[in-house]
Amino acid sequence: MSSPSANGTAADGAPDSPGTAERAIARLEHVRFSYDAGATWALDDVSLDIAPGEYVCLTGANGSGKSTLARLLCALSAPDGGVVTLLGRRVFDGRGAHADDYRMARRGIGAVFQNPEDQIVTTIVEDDVAFGPENLAAPRNDIGSRIADALRAVDLADMRAADPTRMSGGQQQRVAIAGMLAMRPRMLVLDEPTAMLDPEARAELLAVLDTLHARGTTIVHVTHHADETARASRIIRLEGGRVADDGRTDATDAVPTICDASADAADDTAEMAAGGYGDAADGRAESSSRMGTDPDAETDESDQTRRNPRTETHRPPSDASRPADETRPDSDTGPAVTVDHVSFSFSGAESPALDDVSFDVRRGEVLAIMGRNGSGKSTLARLLCALETPSRGDITVGGVKVATGRASGASKRAPRKALRELRRQVGYVMQHPERQLFAETVADDVAYGPRNQGLSEREVDDRVAWALSMLGIAHLADRDPFSLSGGQQRLAAVAGVIACLPRVLVLDEPTASLDERASAAIRRLVRELQTQGVTVLIVTHNAHEARELADRVLVMRHGRVASLLAVEDAFSDGGALNDEGARTDDTNESDEIHAGSDRATKRPSRAPLAQVDPRVKMVAFLAMMFTAFAIATPAQLALCAAMAAGLIAAARLRPLRLLASVRAFLALFVVMGLLNVFFVRGGTPIAQFGPITITDEGVGIAVLYACRFALVIVMGAIFLETTTPTRMTDAFASLLSPLRRLGVHTQELSLVLSLALRFIPTLMQETMAVIDAQSARGGGVETGTPTRRIRALAAIIVPVFAGTLRHAGNLGLALDARCYEEGIRRTQWHAMRVSSRDVVFAALAVAYIAALLAIPAFLVW
């Protein structure tokens, strides 16, 4: 793709429509957009021009239409009405959407999503960055230079071989930007790219945007942060789907336009009085309701409250509603949280995520936990809530022993009885709120925890009404939680946790992606809970939030406690943090930036097996895996095991790590194989269990089948570990290419296979997140009766299905943004050529299969 010329040539080389390019790189005229067939309008009569080279910030409250407008500007959505012109092409007008023009416009516009995880399509950084240029059919010798330039621009040049799916959020966001830069766009549209980043990563990302803007790239940046709008040459503020303010301002004028709501929220917060669980005034509850409501919903909130009996009561429930067996097991003396020499390592990681962490949290204290992405903050939060078990150390929360074992060197998880008590004491709001919601309505979701506490339905309704009113979302009680905006979902998740009246509350990035009004509601809630003696731990990157709420600040670095200071000392001249929340020490932070998480380890790309042509490797592995099912003798089993060991050595994989990656499948197939013990009747009986006779032949066949299944799974894992999804897609498409003559869409089938393998771990994480959300609110998956566990597992199906659809939708947008289309001519950056290495590997595979089948038949088991 060529760079745009001075006379307005489009990114694909085609001329712009006459008379438009010099005036605007993007133009919207009276645009309307609806998600519900016109019942409501996400955008209503929006008109604006964006000139080449501008730096535009889109601001506004949650639900005001910012993300929708961003998608229109990057050609990923078409409106319901109006005229849209992008890069000089009229992509939408009264006649509808013009697919070809949309397709060509996307070639010159880059899109970066708020969640980069859904934008990454493969498991190697350089392959992911290459995906866009490949779709643009860029020359193969040009793709390499594009990758190098893009990775240098985002300061990831030394992580080309890393796995982006295992990187920190900040690194993933930079990989996503690099993928767009490699396509050399004229305009870059970013939807809240810094929402989940630490101060250092945020500063680095903003510096990248400044550099791109200086080079002439048009920037459109969706943000809630006033300091980010200060760098823009123009700020567009949306309210209720309309442009409320549009001005080209200097830096000093930029901040007030985004802070109008902040001043109102600050006034509301200043009116806060001590209250909470005991006796809060109705007026205070109404104030909190106003603070958490999107502007376009404020007008009808009172009407909806009157219509819904569950939202009539705004008085907080009394702590007396807690059942008698929920009283705290300990006295008010002593710390609320004790962490003693705790370490934790993820499976397969070379170094611990947490390393010898120790600290106490006093009762009624607010502790802010800060640090860079990947420093161990969220891992620590999960350990406190018993959602993970430490490798070593002791943890006590709310008087409950969460994990013990410092003396013996290996921690043990708390027994079920202790876990049930912990769920009554501790509330946990996850980093991704959409993964914490699972009921059919918001009210039902908030009621989940109180119901598990055994409360009456009236008490449950009181808890629900109070929690919703505290967060200002009473009008959302009957809404489907999966239909809410990201900000509304976060508030609903918080409501579901505080409805349990926890004694210790753990909040992981509670105000990320929230506008100032909703953030003020969260801050007000924390203050009120503190007045009632609730201990609050807040994982945050927001320095203002930490200074305003926290009593002390714990700073994590490389999985260790870097400092634990009173808030005034932490932000003092000699403290650990500056006003932006960044560390003030003089250590080389760039080392930490590039180190990333141990889970982003580099693949053994130079291993002999990884260098084999993927087509040869795919055919050879499939043949070896299928012939493994013909194993019927010990000699054949020994030969297959030797071959698997040789493949592991050629792939330079760690055997234990490989086995850990497939342990769930191994366990399943081993159980299936061992079932033969009970069904094979031949041979000499060796044991009798009622009507079941176990024979030596049955035992032998069971062992044979279990080992056979295990070896097949191990071989498949070796192939996946040494073949990236991109290479797998190319190989599969090449092998199926003869079927194109029959009308089979081989390229699309190959991509679906590749993406399925890429997103299976993501969906597994989604499932575990729902289970964790239920467990954190006393759900039955973890500690209930078998019947209750089955019901809880059944309740997972809907939210996991919704998560699958959400990921599929985001993936579709990501493929559009990277210009992937059905039937296009793509350039393969990695040329596939059969070499002598491939011939040798194929010969070895053929020899192995021949030897396996030639073992004498008389060597029976």
Automatic annotation (TrEMBL):
<dbReference type="Pfam" id="PF00005">
    <property type="entry name" value="ABC_tran"/>
</dbReference>
<keyword id="KW-0067">ATP-binding</keyword>
<feature type="compositionally biased region" description="Basic and acidic residues">
    <location>
        <begin position="580"/>
        <end position="601"/>
    </location>
</feature>
<dbReference type="GO" id="GO:0005524">
    <property type="term" value="F:ATP binding"/>
</dbReference>
<feature type="compositionally biased region" description="Basic and acidic residues">
    <location>
        <begin position="303"/>
        <end position="331"/>
    </location>
</feature>
<feature type="domain" description="ABC transporter">
    <location>
        <begin position="26"/>
        <end position="265"/>
    </location>
</feature>
<dbReference type="InterPro" id="IPR003339">
    <property type="entry name" value="ABC/ECF_trnsptr_transmembrane"/>
</dbReference>
<keyword id="KW-0813">Transport</keyword>
<dbReference type="InterPro" id="IPR015856">
    <property type="entry name" value="ABC_transpr_CbiO/EcfA_su"/>
</dbReference>
<feature type="transmembrane region" description="Helical">
    <location>
        <begin position="699"/>
        <end position="720"/>
    </location>
</feature>
<keyword id="KW-1133">Transmembrane helix</keyword>
<keyword id="KW-1003">Cell membrane</keyword>
<dbReference type="InterPro" id="IPR050095">
    <property type="entry name" value="ECF_ABC_transporter_ATP-bd"/>
</dbReference>
<dbReference type="InterPro" id="IPR003593">
    <property type="entry name" value="AAA+_ATPase"/>
</dbReference>
<dbReference type="GO" id="GO:0016887">
    <property type="term" value="F:ATP hydrolysis activity"/>
</dbReference>
<keyword id="KW-0472">Membrane</keyword>
<keyword id="KW-1278">Translocase</keyword>
<feature type="region of interest" description="Disordered">
    <location>
        <begin position="576"/>
        <end position="608"/>
    </location>
</feature>
<feature type="transmembrane region" description="Helical">
    <location>
        <begin position="618"/>
        <end position="651"/>
    </location>
</feature>
<protein>
    <submittedName>
        <fullName>Cobalt ABC transporter</fullName>
    </submittedName>
</protein>
<dbReference type="GO" id="GO:0043190">
    <property type="term" value="C:ATP-binding cassette (ABC) transporter complex"/>
</dbReference>
<feature type="region of interest" description="Disordered">
    <location>
        <begin position="273"/>
        <end position="338"/>
    </location>
</feature>
<dbReference type="GO" id="GO:0042626">
    <property type="term" value="F:ATPase-coupled transmembrane transporter activity"/>
</dbReference>
<dbReference type="Pfam" id="PF02361">
    <property type="entry name" value="CbiQ"/>
</dbReference>
<feature type="region of interest" description="Disordered">
    <location>
        <begin position="1"/>
        <end position="20"/>
    </location>
</feature>
<keyword id="KW-0547">Nucleotide-binding</keyword>
<comment type="similarity">
    <text>Belongs to the ABC transporter superfamily.</text>
</comment>
<keyword id="KW-0812">Transmembrane</keyword>
<feature type="transmembrane region" description="Helical">
    <location>
        <begin position="658"/>
        <end position="679"/>
    </location>
</feature>
<feature type="domain" description="ABC transporter">
    <location>
        <begin position="337"/>
        <end position="583"/>
    </location>
</feature>
<dbReference type="InterPro" id="IPR027417">
    <property type="entry name" value="P-loop_NTPase"/>
</dbReference>
<feature type="transmembrane region" description="Helical">
    <location>
        <begin position="839"/>
        <end position="859"/>
    </location>
</feature>
<dbReference type="InterPro" id="IPR003439">
    <property type="entry name" value="ABC_transporter-like_ATP-bd"/>
</dbReference>
<dbReference type="InterPro" id="IPR017871">
    <property type="entry name" value="ABC_transporter-like_CS"/>
</dbReference>
